[in-house]
Amino acid sequence: MAPLLPTTTRTLLARTARVQAEGRAPSLVAGVVRDGELVWSAGRGAVSEPHRDVQYRLGSISKTITAITVLRLRDEGRLDLDDPLEKHLTGTPFGDRTIGQLLSHLAGAGAESPGQWWERTPGTTLDELGLSEADVVLPAARRFHYSNLGFGVLGELVATARGRAWAEVARDEVLVPLGMRRTTPRPSGRAAQGYAVHPWADVVQVEPEHDAVAMAPAGQLWATADDLARLGVFLLGDTGGVLSPDTVEEMTVPAGVDSSAPAWMAYGLGVQVQRPPDAPVGTVLVGHGGSMPGFLAGLWVDRTEGTGALMLANTTSGLDNGLAAGLLADVRAAEPRIAAAWAPSPPPVPVELLGPWFWGPAPYVLRAVPGGLLHLGGLGRPGRSSRFRPGPDGTWVGMDGYFAGETLRLDEVALNLATFVFTRTPYDGNAPVPGGVAEDGWTPAPQRAPER
């Protein structure tokens, strides 16, 4: 593990100090993850040392842990993301909504649980919440609508499937295997006190903290910087066997898009996905923000650069929540990732199948790309573009873009893809072009439109 350069750490500290001072946070801890480690951190304000071992409340970062517990059930074959909730958990008004919709905030569930503000009052069980049709606020799959209530229900789903409390499942199946032993449902050991800071004066007021019970899976967990860094390493691909890397990749695929965000923002399965403003083309961050009365938190990773950044603070509001993303931008600018040296490797298909193909008259190119994958995209002009991974029986399956999930079949004459036929020459008369090819083939354009 190479340490960050002194000039980089100075830049990171300057940004962190400015955010803490301008945001008037009683205390703040920030850190950067690289090469599987927390390579830099700083504590500002009234935070005791070692600052990396002080618990702060994670808020909605807890949803990522909840999603992992659900996806473990899916990977075991206990459920499917297309299953309606009613198949596994009865007695809610969301029975016809799917598990995948709940994970991606597309189920139309209400933003909050009924009754008092759950983040500041003692929690109750799901039955005691008394959910009704009034808690269904939108049609299924119609639009993104962030729902704390939906993740409370998912926690109950996990508890029902495992036969024990969600917090116990999260501890035994996620937190302990990842080494996150200082992540707990309630503050334990050295923990920061949550405060509200007065908007017009430099005074603070203690915020309450209770067991959220049914709503705990939406925002209950507390963690240290060291533990939150380990979750960042998990999102970067070191899953510790808790999930397969393919499932983590699945989590990061945008599903529900938050069109109200000032920049490109979406939601996958228990994680937020964003393309920050002013970031280099192709930069996508994965992670989650979190807030509870008295606390703000953030964890974001850049999977391409292999870096992550975190922020923990004990203030209810007023802080620049872009700190973690800003730290990543600082590292990217000061110490950009050095690409691995290129080396020849055998293509996953005969090289004769690669190169130009035509969808009608439109030129495309099929390339071999790293990881044993294929890429089909426009040649010299925009076009529908997708990567493909090997599928069964010599076929290929779309991973992203327009052809995600579609099957590609290759032979020397044509590429067959979602009813489209790509040929070696535009409308090749020797290929099975849908609708056939005009007998006269390619001719000069007529001087005027022919009469019929």
TrEMBL record:
Region (Disordered): 432-452
Coiled coil: none
Residue span(s) of domain DUF7586: 347-424
Domain of life: Bacteria
Single GO MF descriptor: hydrolase activity
Gene3D superfamilies per UniProt: DD-peptidase/beta-lactamase superfamily (3.40.710.10)
SUPFAM superfamilies: beta-lactamase/transpeptidase-like
Residue intervals of the Beta-lactamase-related domain: 19-322
EC number: 3.-.-.-
Keywords: Hydrolase
Protein name: Serine hydrolase domain-containing protein
Organism name: Pseudonocardia aurantiaca
